[in-house]
Specification:
two-stranded antiparallel ribbon; 2 strands
């Protein structure tokens, strides 16, 4: 058990480019995109044109839903190298998420020609082609006579009447039209969600005669035009969501999530907790740490009033909420309070034997200690997390971080040993970037242990990986150290 009353002081040293990159990668794995973007941005102030860093930040923007910023970073990564595979893929992904499926397809194809063995380009081509086909559809699937769908266009003077040659019994036409309208309404309600009522309000507002006659203006723009543009945007978003992800898939995912919670709680608490968790996560992802903190505290207060019968897994919920509070406080810079809540999250998870939650809590505790310069405590936390690690990639960065802590403490043998473990895990997942990081850690440790021949071998391996990922700053730094070590051997 940890001592949750340990004192620590917050230290904010100015870090190197490699440190900012490593921190950004770790935060990205944790899906803490706001802080990851901050780390990558700091790295880019030191080296503005680093292609890999621009791609990494682009991924964060894309996962946050900011496709335009993601596209800007992706295009910036291609300025000096038009055939940079990672940049091509990221640009294609950004274009796809913006609904520019044809342009995305071009860049997926361009990337596949460059890297024919990479699966992500083939998957990108497939999903872009499917989205294009969904947007075109078959002739029988295109509904051009749904007056409800196009009513706002009709109000603007655009004809939606069927061709004069279309002959059909009146009653059958009305029945089919009614069925199509109902189906469309149900689909659009599912796709638009809370925006459905907003769109309905805007449609009714557009029919307002007073609005049409007065022609109100705001900053030179007619209010009617603003409403029309808003409706057009919602129609385009509906089409995009339908093309990108079929409605049945969205329903399926939602039902799966609800079922997971419903297995633990009665229907009402389950719905409340599911909604609350989404609100907390969304607020934190958008940089609203204060809002996330407030909501998590409200949930804890509510859950504590519920009986064990209503919430059989009460401790699990409390553990999750304390973890959310800890994350919010970390974003707000209050490391001392954040640490206490992550300890509480760990204790509740330990009582319920929730290994995943324990692992996450130990990770957060270790991060706080490392950030505040308490490297021994960080090592203690992360070494307890190691047996709970399930994936090689997680083991890679965890062993690397533990090794770095030992290195800061000048315990170079331990740092080297963890660097070797990190390298082995990186090889398992064939991750060039982490192979680079691990080789550098081992080489630096061997240098301080005076094992110069081994040091040179690991630096040469690191240099090879740096060239593979085209990290110019790492190449320069490694080459400089290599020259120094080789010169030392010749003396």
């Amino acid at each position: 058990m940890f001592d949750s009353n340990k004192e620590q002081q917050i230290v904010k040293p100015k870090s190197s480019f490699a440190t900012y990159i490593s921190e950004g990668d770790r935060l990205f794995l944790k899906k803490n995109y706001v802080k990851a973007i901050d780390s990558y941005s700091k790295a880019l102030t030191l080296k503005p044109d680093d292609k890999n860093c621009l791609v990494s930040r682009s991924k964060c923007f894309l996962d946050m839903g900011d496709s335009e910023s993601a596209l800007r970073d992706a295009e910036a990564s291609l300025k000096t190298d038009k055939m940079f595979a990672k940049g091509l893929y990221q640009k294609a992904e950004a274009l796809y998420n913006m609904g520019e499926f044809e342009f995305a397809l071009v860049f997926y194809h361009r990337g596949q020609k460059l890297r024919p063995v990479h699966q992500e380009f083939r998957r990108g081509i497939q999903k872009a082609q499917e989205a294009i086909e969904n947007s075109i559809g078959s002739p029988s699937s295109i509904n051009l006579d749904s007056k409800e769908d196009l009513s706002f266009l009709q109000d603007m003077g655009v004809s939606t009447s069927p061709p004069s040659g279309a002959v059909q019994p009146v009653m059958m036409e009305k029945m089919q039209q009614s069925q199509k309208t109902n189906d469309n309404e149900r689909t659009e309600k599912k796709l638009l969600g809370e925006f459905y009522s907003d769109r309905k309000y805007l449609k009714n507002l557009l029919k307002d005669e007073a609005l049409q006659t007065k022609g109100n203006q705001q900053d030179g723009e007619r209010l009617q035009e603003v409403i029309t543009n808003s409706l057009t945007f919602l129609e385009m978003r509906t089409l995009f969501w339908h093309q990108q992800r079929p409605i049945y898939a969205r329903d399926r995912d939602l039902k799966l999530r609800q079922q997971q919670w419903s297995n633990l709680f009665p229907s009402d608490p389950a719905e409340f907790l599911l909604k609350s968790q989404d609100e907390i996560s969304e607020a934190l992802a958008c940089g609203n740490a204060a809002g996330s903190l407030k909501k998590a505290k409200e949930v804890i207060k509510t859950v504590q009033e519920w009986s064990e019968k209503m919430v059989p897994n009460k401790k699990e919920v409390l553990s999750s909420m304390h973890s959310c509070i800890g994350d919010a406080l970390m974003d707000m810079g209050d490391m001392e309070k954040a640490l206490k809540h992550h300890y509480k999250a760990f204790e509740f998870a330990q009582q319920c034997d929730l290994l995943d939650v324990m692992s996450r809590a130990l990770d957060n505790i270790g991060c706080i200690y490392a950030h505040t310069g308490n490297f021994l405590e960080a090592i203690e936390s992360w070494e307890k997390k190691l047996p709970l690690v399930q994936f090689p990639l997680e083991e890679t960065w965890l062993c690397h971080e533990i090794g770095r802590c030992y290195f800061e403490l000048k315990l170079y043998k331990e740092a080297r040993d963890y660097g070797i473990r990190s390298l082995a895990a990186a090889k398992d997942v064939a991750d060039e970037k982490w192979k680079l990081n691990a080789n550098v850690l081992v080489a630096q440790s061997e240098k301080n242990l005076k094992n110069f021949e081994s040091c040179i071998a690991y630096f040469e391996s690191a240099l090879s990986h740096a060239k593979t990922v085209k990290d110019d700053s790492a190449i320069d730094a490694i080459q400089k150290v290599l020259d120094e070590v080789e010169q030392h051997l010749t003396q």
